[in-house]
Model the fold of this input.
Amino acid sequence: MRISARANSLKPSSTVAVMNRAKALKAQGVDVLNFSAGEPDFNSPQRAKDAAIAAISANQTRYIETAGDLASRELIAGFLRERNRIPGVTADHVIITSGVKMALYMAFQCLFDVPAGDQEAQELLLPVPAWVSFAPMAQLAGAKVVELPTTPESDFKITPEQLRGAISPRSRALLINSPSNPCSTMYTPDELRALAEVVAEASRTVAPDLVIVSDELYQNIVFGDVPFASIGSFASVSERTITINGPGKSFAMTGWRLGWASGSGEFGKKVVSAMTKLQGQSTTCVPAFCLAGLREALSHCQSDLEVMRAAFAVRGALMYDLLRAVPGVKVARPMGAFYVFPDISAHLHRTSAGGRLLSGAADFAAALLDEQQVAVVPGEDFGSMGHRHVRMSFACGEDQIRKGIARLNAFIAGLR
Done:
């Protein structure tokens, strides 16, 4: 019996793999300091939990509308209009999905056609480093991924000129992720406006079907000098932008598996309608009792969100300052989310104290875990520049950050 080439071509998520190994070692009693987890170490807001429990007790445990109940979609649409300044969003422009991953997966399935015969694949323009699942999900939908490389010196951001040079008649979607996973840097409103103008110009000339998919999952975790902005708020691209978001990171609700996708104008309705059909043939709908918790979180848990945001601001500053003092390590200042993506290339092609040759980030991360019990995610799966980097999450306590960087220093001091 054979498994499909499509499934066999997929690599396991490196972030999930490292997180699972770190948890397994910890369960065995190993003193692992885990910097791999892409989720807050806080608990979901009590009011959200109480609302979900009350909904279960009230027997809100049956199927609901495929796109999500009207009250939840209206609430999300209002937030998109008022906080994200995206015009013309109504409940009909919103679908609630089983997590942000599912929202992205279905958006790609609805945007890209699998090439037939000698037809060339449509392209996803992907600034890298990028979250490990963007490229595989697009490729599963039949897309060719065109990487737009960035560096720590540019704060891991593409330029309008770089984007203009990458667009071709096959360009179907540009992925924007600000604040970024894995880099935690973000675009200024003016930078987003400039990128939007390039997309708008290209849509009138070489790439009429070009749209933007904006992953804004870390919208509420911002602590630098740069204000958050949605690229879909700019009139030039508002009706060719799919905005993806959810409560998982901001409200510590990752396990609730809730996300949403939205658009604006006729395009927004069209893409949400297509995603709704796809959801109806896959997961059917999200649980009604989870949506009761979501509504409570969005409406009444801003103080919980602020507590977490302020903690991440302190942790990010601490992580940045400590890493800058590690010999040979370069790191960009985090502006949002809860990651850093340090460049450790100065220490590659050396040998660890335990005798491992560090040919790339994967070797570096494996040796660091084996020899100092510090779990980080190797950067290879984040894009072509990733072999020089590792990702570290600061969704953990300040004591762990200090201990972890001390162990990293000890590990580097032992290299030869």
